[in-house]
């Protein structure tokens, strides 16, 4: 008998996967049965990755498996949620065992790391595409949202920005960088780290939060719009990796950080009154957040500054135009 859909699910997505106590019934029936903890709200996010659009043929299957979960866990992180369950809709052009092995390893590794269980999905034939839905919990009323920023709040970003964009530019030969820098930034493009622990730490602290998938400028603007506020950013405060600053000139590095996507860091706002608690909460965090500016009352106005003056790097010959 040919290796069919059920063999595929059994071989790659069932045996030796992490299990959780709150899953009454996982893969195998018509639907999953799940227990939501009392006094919690369920947080749900879905993201799709399409071959040729969100990743290309060079992308290792293990990276695709990691990333399709990571982008969803990053959405949960931005809500302050604790991840619990994932489901997977998989569309495959053919039965490719090497690809499925790599993909399922990548997905299983990140599930194990974040204590998530794959609770079901769907498998169809067609152009390669993956959709993951992630489910998580927050205590009732405690979720982080985009609409809570207030004038005077401080703006932070976690980790460093621009690396994934540099990796993509190098891969597409739009920029030339050293092998060691390339390895560094490619790791960030292929294996992003969703800031799950940080998001949960921010629950009682941040007034708003978002994850950076489309670039700081684009994503911060979602907070500004939802919260009906503006922002001042000091471009020299934006955290940049040595791989980025060592590969392009200073204003270009800032432009990557501002405009290129795929970093999956968190951008969030902290009221002055919560700053002490916040500093304690994040003291030992591995992707330690950096303060980059402040929320203003000027609705939807994003002002990029250097030494208090408007920063011109975005419109200069090395800047923003590269990304538009
Ligand atoms: P149905 O036809 O009832 O929708 P399916 O044949 O699509 O059932 O799926 C059988 C079982 O396998 C279900 O529990 C479903 O959630 C699970 N499943 C299907 N595809 C996947 C996948 N890619 N990953 C994980 N579980 C899957
Ligand atoms: Mg089905």
Topology of helices and strands:
Elements: H1 5-13, E1 23-25, E2 33-34, E3 40-50, H2 61-78, E4 82-92, H3 97-113, E5 117-125, E6 129-139, E7 154-157, H4 163-171, H5 179-190, H6 196-201, E8 208-211, H7 216-227, E9 230-234, H8 242-245, H9 250-259, E10 266-270, H10 275-282, E11 290-296, E12 302-306, E13 309-310
Parallel strand pairs: 4-5, 9-12
Antiparallel strand pairs: 1-2, 3-6, 4-6, 7-10, 7-11, 8-10, 9-11, 12-13
Helix pairs in contact: 2-3, 4-5
Q: Strand-and-helix sequence, N→C?
A: HEEEHEHEEEHHHEHEHHEHEEE
Measured distance between first and last alpha carbons: 52 Å
Structural class determined from secondary elements: alpha+beta
How would you sum up the global shape? globular
Q: Helix count?
A: 10
Binding site for substrate: 54, 262, 320
Binding site for Mg(2+) 5: 214
Binding site for Mg(2+) 3: 30, 75, 211
Function: Catalyzes the ATP-dependent phosphorylation of thiamine-monophosphate (TMP) to form thiamine-pyrophosphate (TPP), the active form of vitamin B1.
Characterise this structure.
The chain has 2 domains: 5-139, 60s Ribosomal Protein L30, Chain: A, CATH 3.30.1330; 154-310, Alpha-Beta Complex (Phosphoribosyl-aminoimidazole Synthetase, Chain A, domain 2). Helices cover 32% and strands 24% of the residues. The protein has 10 helices and 13 strands. The radius of gyration is 21 Å and the shape is globular. The N and C termini lie far apart (52 Å). A hairpin with a 7-residue loop joins strand 1 (23-25) and strand 2. The strands form 3 sheets. The protein has a 7-stranded mixed β-sheet, sandwiched between helices. It has a 4-stranded mixed β-sheet with strand order 3-6-4-5. By secondary structure, it is α+β, with helices and mostly antiparallel strands. The site of adenosine-5'-diphosphate has 13 residues, from helix 1, strand 4 and strand 5.
């Amino acid at each position: 008998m040919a290796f069919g859909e059920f063999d595929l699910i059994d071989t790659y997505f069932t045996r030796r996967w992490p299990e959780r106590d709150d899953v009454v019934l996982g893969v195998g029936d018509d639907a999953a049965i799940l227990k939501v903890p009392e006094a919690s709200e369920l947080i749900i996010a879905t993201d799709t990755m399409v071959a040729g659009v969100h990743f290309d043929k060079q992308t290792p299957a293990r990276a695709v498996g990691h990333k399709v979960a990571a982008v969803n866990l990053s959405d949960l992180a931005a809500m302050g949620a604790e991840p619990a369950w994932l489901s997977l809709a998989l569309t495959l052009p053919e039965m490719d065992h090497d690809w499925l092995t790599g993909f399922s390893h990548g997905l299983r590794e990140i599930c194990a790391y974040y204590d998530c269980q794959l609770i079901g999905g769907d498998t169809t034939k067609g152009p390669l595409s993956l959709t993951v839905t992630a489910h998580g919990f927050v205590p009732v009323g405690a979720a982080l949202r985009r609409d809570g920023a207030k004038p005077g709040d401080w703006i932070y970003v976690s980790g460093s920005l621009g690396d994934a964009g540099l990796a993509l530019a190098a891969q597409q030969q739009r920029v030339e960088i050293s092998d060691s820098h390339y390895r560094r930034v490619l790791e960030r493009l292929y294996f992003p780290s969703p800031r799950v622990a940080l998001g949960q730490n921010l629950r009682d602290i941040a007034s708003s939060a978002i994850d950076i998938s489309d670039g700081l400028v684009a994503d911060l603007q979602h907070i500004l719009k939802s919260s009906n506020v503006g922002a001042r950013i000091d471009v020299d405060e934006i955290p940049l990796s040595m791989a980025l600053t060592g590969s392009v000139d200073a204003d270009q590095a800032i432009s990557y950080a501002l405009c290129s996507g795929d970093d999956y860091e968190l951008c969030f706002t902290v009221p002055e009154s919560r700053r002490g608690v916040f500093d304690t909460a994040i003291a030992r965090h591995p992707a330690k957040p950096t303060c980059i500016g402040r929320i203003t009352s000027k609705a939807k106005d994003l002002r990029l500054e250097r030494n208090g003056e408007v920063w011109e790097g975005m419109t200069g010959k090395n800047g923003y135009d590269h990304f538009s």
